[in-house]
Amino acid sequence: MNMADFFSMGGRGFYVWSSFGAVALALVIEMMLVKKRGSAAAQLKKTVAETQQ
């Protein structure tokens, strides 16, 4: 088995690798959104703490 055979996946390589890419992209986007939501939550917590004093 050579690398071309591995990447072609028996003629189904396009579907396999595009699915892999879509999942990888979704995970990266999810990590970015989680970080953004965490930052927003921290900012909200800081704002609420400042207004209560």
Core attributes:
53 residues; mainly alpha; 2 helices; rod-shaped
Written account of the structure:
The protein has 53 residues and is mainly α. It has a domain at 22-53. Helix content is 87%, strand content 0%. It contains 2 helices and no strands. It has helices at residues 3-8, 13-52. It is rod-shaped, with a radius of gyration of 21 Å. The model has no long low-confidence stretch (mean pLDDT 93).
- Per the principal axes of the C-alpha atoms, what is the gross shape? rod-shaped
Span between termini: 69 Å
Radius of gyration: 21 Å
Element-by-element helix/strand order:
HH
How would a crystallographer describe the biggest sheet? none
Summarize the structure.
Helix content is 87%, strand content 0%. It has helices spanning 3-8, 13-52. The relative contact order is 0.07.
SSE layout:
Layout: H1 3-8, H2 13-52
